[in-house]
Every structure is written in structure tokens, then in C-alpha cells.
Design a protein that fits this description.
Layout (H helix, E strand, L loop, with lengths): L2 H19 L3 E9 L4 E8 L6 E13 L2 E11 L2 H10 L4 E3 L2 H4 L2 H4 L1
Antiparallel strand pairs: 1-2, 2-3, 3-4, 4-5
């Protein structure tokens, strides 16, 4: 893991916990590999006794007319039902990255 991946991981954990996961749980671990374009995360969800593991096996960043999108190409989780949900509603879909994330874009490429 490079220094840039480590820096992005630390900033991302705080941002994701505050902006996205607060009502659902806490991101407890994040490993990012910008070279391989993979993400390995662990989330402690409210009501779950054990953490949920999420692996993004491949992602892509697309920039169009000043807007940046993330596309999950392949993913799995430690729960079969959640893997199905991710595949049905997240894989191969474009998610617009907020402006606050775009400033980190050079580090993600």
C-alpha cells in the first residue's frame, strides 16, 4: 500500500462515517489499493453482532463534463443476502462523487 492510499483511507473513514453510515453503523476498517482498483472494508452495522465485510474487486472512476462518477465493476460481502443486494443495486451503476471527494481525485487515480 502506498502513502497516498493510506492518506485517502484515513480521510475516507471519517467522511464515510459522518456523511453516509452514521444512521446504519460504523466503518471500522478500510483498505484501498488505487493501483489494483480494489477496496476492502469492514462495517459494524447497528443490530449486527459481527462486522460485515465488503470487498470491491474492481472499480472505475469516470469523468464527464466536470462530474466524476464511481462505478463498481465487481463486489462481494460476508453476507449472501447483502452480496445479492449489492449486485442488484450497486454493481455497474454510476454514483456521482460529491464535490468534497473530488479534491482527492488525483490521489485516487
Amino acid at each position: 500500500m502506498g502513502a497516498k492510499d493510506w492518506l485517502v483511507e484515513k480521510a475516507a473513514v471519517v467522511m464515510i462515517n459522518q456523511a453516509v453510515l452514521k444512521p446504519y453503523g460504523t466503518l471500522t476498517a478500510l483498505k484501498l489499493d488505487t493501483t489494483a482498483r480494489t477496496i476492502d472494508a469492514e462495517v459494524q452495522l447497528h443490530g449486527e453482532t459481527e462486522p460485515v465485510r465488503l470487498q470491491v474487486h474492481e472499480y472505475e472512476l469516470i469523468e464527464e463534463a466536470g462530474t466524476v462518477f464511481a462505478v463498481i465493476k465487481s463486489a462481494s460481502t460476508s453476507r449472501a443476502w447483502l452480496t445479492r443486494l449489492v449486485n442488484d443495486f450497486a454493481v455497474q451503476r454510476r454514483f456521482e462523487l460529491p464535490e468534497s471527494v473530488r479534491k482527492f481525485l488525483p490521489m485516487l487515480r
